[in-house]
Design goal:
single chain, alpha/beta, Rossmann fold, five-stranded parallel β-sheet, two-stranded antiparallel sheet, 7 helices, 7 strands, 33% helix, 21% strand, binds iron/sulfur cluster
């Protein structure tokens, strides 16, 4: 009997992509992973535009900072069995949330694009292209339920592998100890 592969996804929200770069640091283990999973959606290794149905596990990088992030994470949650908050920006909102202390989206946009704009200062405004910012950046679990937290900025390749290997066996990883839950 041919066993169905695990339907695996990764999502990039408000993060720097460093967590995905760390995922690529899995190097040759990615070949082993590829034998056990179908990557059905990811900013790396896939050109699929729409998040598919029936995803078994998904790594989510980044916080929820704009309306596109919000729309996507609601869809991802609805279509995913096991959702993993992947990296400090997903777990705590981390760097993207530094703007939260500046009083909302408008003052941040004005500061960045008008006050500090050297040439033709203007606010980014292209409906359907530039997603409006949310007033506050939020960690993923404040928006949708999360099944597993994998902190780190970024999580090391070793930590990613130690998280995924039990999942591939159908077991939940033990996220305990410095090697698995240290921030930063
Ligand atoms: S947790 Fe760190 S590496 Fe990952 S997206 Fe955020 S800033 Fe980048």
């Amino acid at each position: 009997m041919i066993m169905a592969k695990i339907r695996f996804a990764t999502v990039w929200l408000a993060g720097c992509s460093g967590c995905h770069m760390s995922f690529l640091d899995l190097d040759e283990w990615l070949l082993e992973l590829a034998q056990q999973v179908d990557i059905v959606y990811s900013p790396i290794g896939s050109d699929i535009k729409n998040y598919p149905d029936n995803v078994d596990a998904c790594l989510v990088e980044g916080g929820i900072a704009n309306e596109d992030n919000l729309e996507l994470i609601l869809e991802v949650r609805a279509k995913t069995k096991l959702l993993i908050s992947f990296g400090d920006c997903a777990v705590t909102a981390n760097i993207p949330a530094m703007r939260n202390m500046l009083g909302g989206a408008e003052p941040v946009l004005k500061r960045a694009y008008l006050e500090l704009g050297d040439v033709t200062p203007q606010l980014p405004d292209e409906p359907g292209i530039v997603p409006p910012l949310l007033e506050q950046v939020r960690p993923v679990h404040e928006v949708v339920p999360i099944d597993l937290f994998m902190p780190g900025c970024p999580p090391s390749a070793d930590r990613i592998r130690a998280t995924l290997e039990p999942l591939l066996r159908g077991e939940m990883p033990e996220m305990v100890g410095r090697e698995m839950i240290k921030f930063g």
